[in-house]
Amino acid sequence: AVLAASSLLFAGAKPLERMRDPAQLSTHAGPEPVAEEVSADFRWLAAQDAWDVITQHPFRGLGPGNFEYAFPPYRTRTHGTFSTMGHPENDFLWLACEYGLPALLLALVGTVLLFRNAAPGKNREGWITRAGCAAAVAAFLLHGMMDVPGHRPGAVLAALMLGGLAFARKREAEISPAPPWLGWLLSGAGF
User: Fold this and answer.
1) Which letter does DSSP use for residue 23 in this model?
2) Range 110-123 average pLDDT
3) DSSP letter (8 states) at residue 103
4) Which pTM was predicted?
5) What SS3 state is found at 65?
6) Euclidean distance between the first and final Cα of the chain, in Å?
């Protein structure tokens, strides 16, 4: 917990200033002041502009990391609101814009299969913990429909940790543990 809290201090998130007076904290890093906040209307307009990108490039997308640079010609509804847009304010649209609809479909199918594994079927041991962790991962995914928490390492690591707890499979009794010398060998190879 101490390591996580100290990493927030060094990551530039300014949590102490946000706790003192959230109204005085500026979230804009550019030289010109921004008079408007990201509203639900803007998110809807950005989603419509992103959908235009998806309809133009449905299979391959724009390519990883190219959204900010390739998106300006598609900004018909959000033109003039912000100088640049690094993401479409939606993780799922961002994935579809950069990687295409097949990648989005593959991610959604994989997510559904993982949630099926968290259901209390064969492995009833610890199902309450797994269900709680799965609910937290579902909240992360729902948040991704209205914002982009998927590009913040802290949020992604927390979701991955909770996902590991929720979607872990019970080890079968017949699987033998790895020999102790294997750990030393891999540690030595890592160094």
Assistant:
1) G
2) 76
3) H
4) 0.64
5) coil
6) 27
Report residue 127's pLDDT band, with 50, 70 and 90 as the boundaries: confident
Tokens of 128: 């309450």
Closest-CA residue to 89 (of 48, 30, 47, 29):
47
Cα distances from 13 to residues 30, 36, 114, 168, in angstroms, run: 16, 21, 31, 32
Structure tokens at 64: 């990883």
H/E/C letters for each residue in the chain? Answer: CHHHHHHHHHCCCCHHHHHHCHHHCCCCCCCCCCCCCCCHHHHHHHHHHHHHHHHHCCCCCCCCCCHHHHCHHHCCCCCCCCCCCCCCCCHHHHHHHHHCHHHHHHHHHHHHHHHHHHCCCCCCCCHHHHHHHHHHHHHHHHHCCCCCHHHCHHHHHHHHHHHHHHHCCCCCCCCCCCCHHHHHHHHHHHC
